Amino acid sequence: MNHFLAALLLFLIVECAPDREVKPATRPNILIILTDDQGFEDAGFQGSPDILTPNLDTLARNGVIFTDAHVTATVCSPSRAGIMTGRYQQQFGHEPNVPPRHTGTDTTQVTIADVMVANGYRTSLNGKWHLGSTPAHHPNSRGFEHFFGILGGHRTYFADTYPATSPNAAYWNRTHVQFPGDYFTDAQGDSAIAYLKQVEGDPFFLFLSFIAPHAPMDAKPEDLELFKDHQRPEYAAMMWAMDRAVGNVVTHLKATGQFDNTLIIFLSDNGGSPVNDSSNLPLKGFKGNKFEGGHRVPFFVHWPARVEGGRRFDGLTSSLDLFPTTLAAAGITKPADLPLDGVNLLPFLDGTAQGDPHEQLFFRKEESAAVRMGDWKLIRVEGVGYAMYDLSSDPGEMTNLVDADSARFQTLKAALEQWETRLIEPWWEESRQWQDVTREIHESLMKNEPVKRVSP
C-alpha cells in the first residue's frame, strides 16, 4: 500500500467513525506514555549528558519526578500485564514474555481500559501491546475502543513488510494496514493526534505505548544526521524521534485547550537492554535481571490543573499505582470486587500523605526473584544463592550483606516467601537456553564480575 492510500485509510478511519454525542470534557483526560527498553539515565530530566529529550524534560520539570519508581517485571510483556491490570501479574500466571506459541495473558483479568470505557471515557491503545494476538486477546477485546500498533513485541521501524499473520504487523483496530508515513515512531504520534481529533469533547484515556527505543536500531536518516558524531547515534536519534512525537501530541493538547486538564504519566516498561546501547547508570544491572537497573525506571507525573510541579518524590513507587491513580483522578470508584495491588498516588502528590506509597515491592520471573523493603534489597537466584544490599549506602549493589546481617536477611526472605504464596504456576516457560543465560548473568552480577554473554 502506498503512502497516499495509507493516508486515505487513516482519514476514513478517523472521519467516518460512527457519530457519538459530544460532551464537554469536565473530567480529566488521561495520557500514559510508555517507552520500551529505555535506560534509566537516558533522558535529560534523568541527568543524561548526551540523550536529548527536550519535550519530556519540560513535562518532567513542570511535573513531579519519581526517583524510586519500579515496574513489576524486567522484561516487556509481564511488565505490561502488571500495568494493565494493576496486579502482580504472577498471580495469574504471567511471568516470562508471552511466547509466540501461546495465546496470551489471562482474559478474565480486568484491564484499566475496561474500567475507563465503562465509565464514559474514550479509550485508545497506540503502539505496542504484547499481551496476546488472538481475537480474544486483542486490545479491542480488552477495553480499548481504538487500536493502532502491533500485537507483538518488536518490529522494524521502516516499511511494513510483515504479513497479516505476524504479531508484529501494523493494525488499525483489527485491520492489517501499511502504517502511514515512513517511520513508525512518527506514525504513532500522528495517529495519536488523529484519534484525539476524533474524540475531542469527550474525556479520553490514551495509552501511548512506544516501541522505541527497543531494538532493532532503526533511525530516520535525517535524525541520524543530527547525531552522526554521537557515541550512540542510533539510540540518540530514536529517542529524539520519540520525544518529538510526544511534543507533537502536547502541542495538539495545548492548541485545543486540553493540556492543563490532562494527567500525563510517563515511564519505561523495564530497564535498558544491553543490545540497544542504553545506559542504566548509576544503577547496576539491565533488562532481564533483578538488580535495580532491570526494574527501576524513569517516571514522572504531570497535571497542571491538580499537581504542583517542579518537585521530586523519593518514595518507593510502582507501575501498579497507575491503575488506582487513574481511577482516582477520573473520579471513578474502584469496583468492590476488583483486587488491585497498587496505591493511589494523588495524596502523595498533593501532600496529604507522606512517606512511601509501598513498604514492600516484589519481583519474580522463574528462577530469579527479589524484594525491596525500604532501602533494603534481597535477590534470590536458584542454583546461585542470595544477595542482600543496603541501597541507602550502596546504591550500586556491590556489597552482599547476607552474612553481615542475618536477622534482616531472614526478614526479607520471609517476606518474599510469604508473597509467593499468593502466586500460581506460570502459564508458560521461557526457553531453557534463556533461563541458563539469565542465571549466568545474575551470578556474574552477584559476584561483581563482567557479564560473559547476554543472549543464547
Question: What do these coordinates show?
Answer:
With 456 residues, the protein is an alpha/beta fold. It has helices spanning 3-15, 54-61, 76-85, 112-118, 184-198, 221-226, 233-255, 292-295, 322-330, 346-349, 406-420, 432-446, and strands at residues 29-35, 64-66, 69-70, 122-128, 146-150, 171-172, 175-176, 204-209, 262-268, 299-302, 311-313, 317-318, 360-365, 368-373, 376-381, 385-390. The strands form 3 sheets. Strands 7-6-5-4-8-1-9-10-2-11 form a 10-stranded mixed beta sheet, sandwiched between helices. A 4-stranded antiparallel beta sheet has the order 13-14-15-16, with helices on both faces. Strands 3-12 form a two-stranded parallel ribbon. The longest helix has 23 residues, at 233-255. The protein starts with a helix and ends in a 10-residue tail after the last helix.
Question: What is this entry, summarized?
Answer:
This protein has helices spanning 3-15, 54-61, 76-85, 112-118, 184-198, 221-226, 233-255, 292-295, 322-330, 346-349, 406-420, 432-446, and strands spanning 29-35, 64-66, 69-70, 122-128, 146-150, 171-172, 175-176, 204-209, 262-268, 299-302, 311-313, 317-318, 360-365, 368-373, 376-381, 385-390. The protein has a 10-stranded mixed sheet, sandwiched between helices. It is 28% helix and 16% strand.
- Order of strands across the widest beta sheet? 7-6-5-4-8-1-9-10-2-11
Q: Runs with pLDDT <50, length 5+? A: 1-25
Shape: globular
Radius of gyration: 21 Å
Major sheet, described briefly?
A: 10 strands, mixed
Number of DSSP helical runs: 12
How big a fraction of the residues is strand? 15-25%
- Count the strands? 16
Order of helices and strands: HEHEEHHEEEEHEHHEHEEEHHEEEEHH
Q: Which structural class do you get from the secondary structure elements? A: alpha/beta
Report how far apart the termini are: 37 Å
Mean pLDDT: 93
Tell me roughly what share of residues is in helical segments: 25-40%
